[in-house]
Design a protein that fits this description.
One of its GO terms (molecular function) is GTPase activator activity. This protein is mainly α. It is built from 13 helices and 2 strands. About 60% of the residues lie in helices and about 5% in strands. Strands 1-2 form a two-stranded antiparallel ribbon. Strand 1 and strand 2 form a beta hairpin. The chain is elongated and about 70 Å long. It binds 2-acetamido-2-deoxy-beta-D-glucopyranose. 2-acetamido-2-deoxy-beta-D-glucopyranose (NAG) binds next to helix 10 and helix 13.
C-alpha cells in the first residue's frame, strides 16, 4: 500500500521536482546527464529506453512525447529525431558528445526491435521440404557436421547421427521453423570445430543427448529471451558503435543477395553460445538420463537469466 502511494508520488510529483532541482544544480536536463555520463553501452541505452516509456500517457508533456517517439523511431529517421529531441530540450546542436550518444542509443533501440522482427519472421516460416533453399540448408548442415560421411539419401536413418529424431528432420523444427535450421547451419559454419566437438560429445554413451533436437530447443530459449527483452544489455554491449559497413553482412543465397544485419548474426551466435554452454553444463551436472532434460533445461535457463541481468554482460563463445 505505502509502496504504491510512494511510487505514485515519486513518479508524478517528486521526480519532477527532483529533476528540476538537479537541472538547476547542474544546468543540464536528465537526458543530458544520462548521455553525458561515462557509462557507455547497455546502461546508457537502457536508461534512454526507460526514460521514453516511463511516464503515464495522460500526463505526457510535449517534450516527453518527443522522447517517447524517439524510442520508437525507425533507423532511417534517427538522425532527424536526434535533432528534434535536442531542439525540444534546448540542447545546443554543437554538443556533439550528446548528439552521438543519443544517436547510438536510438539506433540500438531500433536495431533490437528490427532484430526481433527478423527473428520472428524466420521463426514463422515452417520447414518446407518442397522448397529447394530449405533443402539445401539442411544438406549443408549435414556436410558441415559430417564431412567424412555422405548422406546416402534424403530420407535416411543417418539423420539420427546428428541428433534428429527420425529419418526425416522436417518434422523436428516444429515451433521454431526455419529459425532453428538457420541457427544450426550458421553455428556449424562459423564455429565448425566447436560444433563438431559438441556433436561428438553428445554421442557420449552415458550422458549423450540429441544434438540437433537440443539445438532447436535452445533456439527457443534464445528466442524467448529476445522476445521478453532480456537480451537487451548483452546486445547493446555487443553492438555498441554506430553501424558501419561491416555491421552488414552480405551472403549470396542462390539467386538473390540477402542482407543480414549484423545483429541477426549476434542472435545466431548467442544461440551458439547457449549450445556450447549447455553442453558444458550438462556434463558438469551429469544427469541420470535424458529423461531429466526438462529439469536441467530450467536450471540452465535460470543461470543464463541471472547472467543477463548484469548491465555489463557480454556472453560470447570466446570466454
Ligand atoms: C524445449 O524443451 C522444453 C522442455 O522439455 C519443452 O517444454 C519445449 O516445448 C521444447 N521446445 C522446443 C521448440 O522443442
Amino acid at each position: 500500500m505505502w509502496a504504491h502511494v510512494w511510487g505514485f508520488l515519486y513518479s508524478n510529483y517528486f521526480r519532477f521536482w527532483l529533476k528540476w532541482i538537479l537541472r538547476l544544480l547542474t544546468g543540464k536536463c536528465e537526458l543530458q546527464r544520462l548521455l553525458g555520463g561515462a557509462e557507455a553501452g547497455a546502461r546508457r541505452t537502457l536508461s534512454v529506453g526507460n526514460g521514453g516509456a516511463g511516464a503515464g500517457a495522460a500526463r505526457l508533456s510535449r517534450k516527453r512525447r518527443v522522447l517517447r517517439n524517439a524510442v520508437h523511431v525507425e533507423e532511417a529517421e534517427v538522425e532527424k529525431c536526434v535533432r528534434d529531441v535536442m531542439k525540444e530540450k534546448n540542447i545546443e546542436q554543437k554538443d556533439t558528445g550528446f548528439k552521438t550518444n543519443l544517436h547510438i542509443s536510438l539506433l540500438q533501440i531500433s536495431g533490437y526491435k528490427k532484430l526481433y522482427l527478423n527473428v520472428e519472421n524466420l521463426r514463422k516460416v515452417p520447414y518446407d521440404s518442397e522448397n529447394e533453399e530449405h533443402e539445401e540448408q539442411l544438406i549443408e548442415l549435414w556436410n558441415l557436421l559430417m564431412p567424412q560421411e555422405t548422406l546416402r539419401s534424403r530420407i535416411s536413418k543417418q539423420w539420427c547421427d546428428i541428433g534428429f529424431q527420425g529419418d526425416d528432420p522436417k518434422t523436428d523444427f516444429r515451433g521454431m521453423g526455419l529459425l532453428g535450421l538457420v541457427n544450426l547451419v550458421y553455428f556449424s559454419k562459423h564455429y565448425t570445430n566447436e560444433a563438431r566437438q559438441i556433436l561428438s560429445r553428445s554421442n557420449h554413451p552415458k550422458l549423450g543427448y540429441s544434438y540437433a533436437i537440443v539445438g532447436i530447443n535452445l533456439t527457443e530459449m534464445a528466442y524467448s529471451l529476445l522476445k521478453n527483452g532480456a537480451l537487451k544489455a548483452h546486445l547493446y554491449n555487443m553492438v555498441s558503435g554506430l553501424p558501419q559497413l561491416e555491421h552488414f553482412h552480405q551472403f549470396y543465397c542462390k539467386h538473390e543477395v540477402v542482407e543480414v544485419v549484423f545483429a541477426d548474426l549476434y542472435f545466431i551466435f548467442f544461440t551458439g553460445y547457449l549450445v556450447y554452454e549447455f553442453d558444458k553444463f550438462w556434463f558438469e551436472e551429469e544427469p541420470e538420463s535424458i529423461m531429466h532434460f526438462n529439469h536441467y533445461r530450467e536450471k540452465f535457463h535460470e543461470k543464463i537469466k541471472g547472467l543477463l541481468l548484469d548491465y555489463n554482460v557480454v556472453l560470447t563463445l570466446q570466454d
